[in-house]
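Tokens in:
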């Protein structure tokens, strides 16, 4: 384990929530809802990831991104904060990291460059530059469905030697790919980037989950992750797989924002173009699964309460 990770024990949390960015009906950032959902995550003990794809980071201007990070930092929450770094313009990403280096965040999520589809050496140069610029530990991100390219296993094995390379978020959806990373990169903490795969990946060595569904179910998702890590899978199937499925019926984060609106956690389900909540036909399945998860969590809490 590298020295940077050793000195940041707060990063060793099993659940990071890829926080949504709430918008008002006119498309402006809803900071009141943002504070409320961030505090809900902190109350559950979940780490917070800002401005990932679930947070619609690439649909925000630089100034809007910075306003969100500064606002959340100003809340002084007792959980670690991670900031996403994503795009295709390396100088712009380096500037973004340099700007965030002065803020009290704890980590960065480094995505593969979009659209360009670099090979192993191009990936190495990209991530090396970002790692070198970063002041805080970094979680690299393999998400070929969005970046268009798989993070090369041998490249990751080279990058793991960098003192700022702390972890990998693996979101290919392929157990075999996770196992290849696990074998080649024993020094990295591996996190599932797929909510539904957490029980499987926990058995293969995942240390936690970077989650979408935790936005709607902060406490219940933490229970789900803790049970997965403890290999206590009884009662998780098919409940959680069925609950997670409607959250990805259309492009993320459309369904989870709609559900949070139904829960009256968000003031509106509005997204930034090209995403729109109007692509979700109805929210009946979401509401039904929300009820089932709420019942499951209430039952767990009842079992944990002293008689």
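Residues out:
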């Amino acid at each position: 384990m590298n020295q940077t990770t050793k000195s940041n024990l707060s990063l060793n949390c099993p659940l990071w929530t890829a926080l949504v960015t709430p918008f008002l009906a006119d498309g402006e950032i809803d900071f009141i809802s943002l504070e409320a959902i961030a505090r809900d995550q902190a109350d559950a003990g979940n780490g917070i990831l800002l401005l990932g794809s679930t947070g619609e980071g690439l649909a925000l201007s630089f100034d809007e991104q910075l306003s969100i990070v500064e606002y959340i930092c100003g809340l002084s929450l007792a959980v670690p904060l991670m900031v996403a770094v994503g795009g295709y313009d390396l100088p712009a990403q380096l500037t973004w990291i340099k700007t965030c280096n002065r803020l009290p965040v704890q980590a960065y999520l480094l995505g593969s460059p979009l659209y360009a589809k670099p090979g192993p050496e191009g990936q190495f140069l990209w991530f090396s530059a970002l790692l070198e610029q970063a002041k805080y530990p970094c979680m690299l991100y393999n998400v070929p469905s969005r970046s268009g390219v798989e993070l090369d296993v041998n490249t990751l094995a080279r990058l793991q030697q960098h003192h700022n390379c702390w972890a990998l978020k693996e979101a290919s959806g392929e157990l075999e790919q996770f196992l290849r990373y696990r074998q080649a990169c024993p020094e990295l903490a591996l996190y599932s980037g797929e909510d539904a795969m957490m029980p499987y990946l926990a058995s293969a060595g995942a240390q936690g989950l970077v989650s979408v569904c935790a936005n709607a179910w902060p406490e219940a998702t933490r229970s789900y992750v803790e049970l997965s890590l403890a290999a206590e899978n009884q009662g998780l199937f098919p409940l959680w797989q069925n609950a997670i499925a409607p959250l990805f019926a259309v492009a993320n984060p459309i369904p989870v924002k709609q559900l949070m609106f139904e829960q009256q956690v968000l003031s509106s389900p509005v997204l930034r173009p090209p995403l729109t909540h109007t692509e979700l036909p109805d929210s009946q399945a979401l509401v039904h699964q929300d009820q089932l998860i709420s019942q499951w969590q209430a039952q767990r809490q009842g079992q944990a309460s002293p008689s």
